[in-house]
Amino acid sequence: MSTMPTSSARMSLNEHLITNAKVEDNLRHLMLDIARAAKYIQRAIRTTEAGLAGTVNQFGEEQIKLDVLSNECIARHLEESRQVASYASEEEDMVIELNSKAPYSVAFDPLDGSSLVDVNFAIGSIFGIYKGKEMIGKTPREQVAALYVIYGPRTLLVYAASNGTHEFILNDVGEFTLLRENLGIADEAKTFSPGNSSAVSDNAGYKKVLDTWLAEKPNMRYSGCMVSDMHHVLSKGQGVFANVGGKKYPEGKLRLLFECGPFAHLFAQAGGSTSNGTASILDVKITSVDQRTPIVAGSTKEVTKVCEMLKAS
Ligand code: AHG
Ligand code: MN
Ligand code: MN
Fold it and tell me: What is the pTM (predicted TM-score) of this model?
C-alpha cells in the first residue's frame, strides 16, 4: 500500500505562510488572492481555445487572448484583496493605482511563455511584491515576497518571502499544498539554458559561453518559457539560465520588474545567484516599467564564470 500522505495531509499554502514565513496577515491575504487568480488562469488555459490554431469562435469573433484574460483576472483579484496600492503588469504601459492607503504594490507578468500555448508547453505567471505604493526607484532586493505559478501537466506554485523557497501543488479540490520545502541550488551547474541564442551572431562573449557549455556540460534544457526554464533549475537543484543582449535586443529580452526581479529573490532564497553581467539583479535600480536587463541565473559558481566570459570580450 502507498505510504504517500493524501492531499489533505499536506500543509496548505495558508498554513505555511502563517507558521513558516510568518508574514503579516495583509501580505498573506494578498498572496492567497494571487493564488486564487492563478487557479482561474490554469482553468482558462485548459478550457479556452485561445492560442490554438484558427481561434475564432462560433460567431466569427476572435477569442480574447490568454495573456489579456490572465491580466484581467489578476487585476480583479488584486483589487478584491484591498491590499494593493499600485500594480505594474507586462500587459499595461503604466503603473496602475488602486488604493493609495493599501500596504503593497505588485509587479507581474500575467502569462509568461504565452506563445507556447499552441505547442502545449508549460507556461506561467510571475509576481514580485513590494511594500508601499512605489516600485520605480527601488531595487528587486526590496521585494518582500516573490512567487510564480507554472501551468504544466501539474499546476505548481513556488514562493519566497525571505524564508527560503518553497513549492506547492494544486490538488484536485483547488488547494495549493506543500510539495517541497527549502529548494536549494548547488554551486556547480550541469545543465544550461541559453535564452535569446540568436544573439551569438553579434555578441562574441555569449558565443564563447555557448561554445563552452556545449563542450563541457552534459545537458541543455531550454523550453523558451522563462518560468519553466527557471523552474527546471530550482527543481533539479542546479543549472544555469541566460538571456543576454545582441543587436536586436541590446539588453536581452527579459524585463527587470516582472520577470528577472521576482526570480532574483526566489533564487537568492534558494542559495543561487542572478546577475546582469556586472551586478546582482537584486541591486539593479528599477527606472521604468518596461526596462529590460540581461540576466545570468542559477548555480553561483557558473554564474560567476559566465559573467567573466561575457566581460572578457
Ligand atoms: P512573454 O510570453 O511574457 O512575452 O515572455 C516570453 C519570454 C520568456 O518567457 C523567455 O525566456 C523568452 O521570451 C524567450 O526568448 P527566446 O525564445 O528568444 O530565447
Ligand atoms: Mn514573460
Ligand atoms: Mn507575458
Answer: 0.95
- The span from the CA of 15 to the CA of 245, in Å, is 42
What is residue 249's three-state secondary structure?
Answer: coil
pLDDT above 80: residue 2: no
Who's near 21: CB < 8 A, 6+ residues apart? 28, 145, 159, 161, 162, 163
Cα 112 to middle of ligand 2, angstroms: 4
pLDDT digits (tens, 9 = 90+) for 264-275: 999 999 999 999
How remote is the C-alpha of 181 from its chain's centroid? 18
Q: What is the pLDDT of residue 6?
A: 56
pLDDT tens for each residue of 109-163: 999 999 899 899 999 999 999 999 999 999 999 999 999 999 999 999 999 999 9
Q: What percent of the chain shows pLDDT beyond 90? A: 89
Question: Could you tell me if the CB of 91 is within 6 A of ligand 1?
Answer: no
CB of 239 sitting under 6 A from ligand 1: no
Residue 313 has a pLDDT of 76
- How far lies 64's CA from each of 11, 105, 116, 117, 303, in Å? 36, 27, 16, 14, 39
Is the distance from the beta carbon of residue 195 to the nearest atom of ligand 1 less than 6 Å? yes
- Nearest ligand 1 atom to the CA of 194 is 19
